[in-house]
Amino acid sequence: MDIMSYIKNLNTKDEIFSDVYQYGIENNVPIIDSDALTVVKHLLKISGARNYLEIGTAIGYSGLHLLSVFPDSKLITIEIDEEKHQTALSNFENHRVSERVTAIKGDAKTFEPDALYESLDFLFIDASKGNNQLFFDKYSKYIKKGGLIIVDNILLRGQIVEEELSSRNRRKLREKVNDFNQKLAESNHETSYLPVGDGLLVITKG
């Protein structure tokens, strides 16, 4: 066992939404890695954040876990895919958190924020990776100063450092994600890059 596998095993907790997790696995729906999820929830606990905005609902798996940290937390989440949106609504209903969720069916790239986005203290970006910069620029302004922002999949399953990628599209994606990572590292925000799951970028809004 290498050192990263050792750490991953320690960070991985028992699954509390096994039905949603299993559905994701069986239907090839990308979901956040268990060890990264543990870190995200720990950071929420430390920060005390209770008002969340999530870009990329998918089937509601990460949203359910976010809401499990504090019983009085609330989630606004945006998903472009109709089928995933409907599945997420069912999962929120089945796990009795619907009253704490505002689930929006729409394209986060063009969606126009409104009064929903007030006093938010956590932004979770987990949608199309090539749009990380767009999502950060568009939605980070709704997070209060000192609030928490986390971006998932910043390592692209290791492709972020691969010198040779046969696919032109993958090379373009790598370039976009790397440019975003570098830009945030050079910004005035406090940032940490964590090699858990597929990589987390943790930002404290300045």
UniProtKB/TrEMBL annotation:
> Per the record, a Pfam family?
Methyltransf_3
Single Gene Ontology BP annotation: methylation
Q: Which SUPFAM superfamilies match?
A: S-adenosyl-L-methionine-dependent methyltransferases
Q: Does the keyword Ribosomal protein apply?
A: no
Write down the EC number.
Answer: 2.1.1.-
**Which Gene3D superfamilies does UniProt cross-reference here?**
Vaccinia Virus protein VP39 (3.40.50.150)
Q: Which PROSITE patterns match?
A: SAM_OMT_I
Signal sequence segment: none
Superkingdom of this protein's organism? Bacteria
Which keywords, in A-to-Z order, does the entry hold? Methyltransferase, S-adenosyl-L-methionine, Transferase
A GO molecular function annotation here is: methyltransferase activity
The protein's name: O-methyltransferase
Q: Name its species.
A: Corticicoccus populi
